[in-house]
Amino acid sequence: xxxxxxxxxxxxxxxxxxxxxxxxxxxxxxxxxxxxxxxxxxxxxxxxxxxxxxxxxxxxxxxxxxxxxxxxxxxxxxxxxxxxxxxxxxxxxxxxxxxxxxxxxxxxxxxxxxxxxxxxxxxxxxxxxxxxxxxxxxxxxxxxxxxxxxxxxxxxxxxxxxxxxxxxxxxxxxx
Length: 175
Prior knowledge:
Elements: H1 3-47, H2 54-76, H3 91-123, E1 127-128, E2 133-134, H4 136-139, H5 141-161
Antiparallel strand pairs: 1-2
Helix pairs in contact: 1-2, 2-5, 3-5
């Protein structure tokens, strides 16, 4: 096996492992959020009681599921996209537009990543009053999601330029 093909396989394996890890984290967050909401509803309407901080924790978990879900959607090329215009281009022009789109999405995610790190540095040491945990524990979802999204954009671009994945295909495939 040549070095190029080995490198492509390594990149695909890395991407696959990262997607599986993010999917696992996403699933755990979603299950915890669901359990918290069911518990809160049961306690509130069944026993006129509640768990302190459950709503705040459910909101934080929602933020994590959103950030992780967006990153996984980038990796699977299932993120929302309007491909009507692009699909009317020739295959070679679609590849160029797709490559430019991946670069722009990566840049956008890197910029958000950078700003979110600065934001966490400024406000992350404060406490979430009800939960008594530092704010950064909820805020870190943003750089995790945007960092993974940028990484997946670069991975798709790298594999596309090397011919290991196809550029110029619609992001959301019709069944």
